[in-house]
Design brief:
156 residues; mainly alpha; Arc Repressor Mutant, subunit A; 67% helix; globular
């Protein structure tokens, strides 16, 4: 008899929710006709959230290839929404920052994401939403710790 794995474990649920959330986000951004693709919107969100970040770090945060991100950033830069500026700590590196021109778009994206999250969390009261948010933060922090530990072991 073939082994049958559970589908409602935390890991399986997180994987499913992540995949479904990404699809819902993509559809929402596409339907909003904001002038950027969902991938470009995700990149802009990362840059806006971090307030100046290296391109390689954005790619890691998004879980995409650096060349894919480069394409997104080239287009966003062409639209005047981001700039690549010298890193004050490393003159060889560039940081990506949002421009003031991006503010209205970021607000529109934020409004769309909030509306989407309201739909997704429908049925959860305020306390349950906060508990979920805090639990997800804990999971993220634990995963960061595991990554750091694995990086140290690899370096040794």
């Amino acid at each position: 008899m073939a082994v049958r794995l559970e589908t409602d474990t935390i890991g399986m649920l997180l994987t499913d929710v992540s995949r479904l959330l990404r699809g819902a986000f993509d559809r929402r951004i596409t339907a909003a006709s904001l002038g950027v693709t969902p991938g470009e919107a995700r990149a802009l969100i990362q840059v806006g959230a971090m307030g100046g970040i290296k391109q390689a770090d954005i790619a890691i945060r998004m879980g995409i290839e650096p060349m894919t991100l480069s394409t997104y950033l080239d287009r966003l830069e062409g639209l005047g929404l981001v700039e690549r500026v010298a890193d004050p700590c490393d003159r060889r590196a560039k940081n990506v920052v949002v421009t003031e021109k991006a503010d209205p778009l970021l607000l529109n994206i934020r409004d769309n994401v909030r509306a989407l999250m309201d739909e997704i969390t429908d049925g959860l009261d305020t306390d349950a939403r906060e508990t979920l948010r805090l639990s997800l933060q804990d999971l993220r922090d634990n995963l960061h710790q595991l990554d750091r530990g694995a990086s140290r072991k690899t370096a040794e």
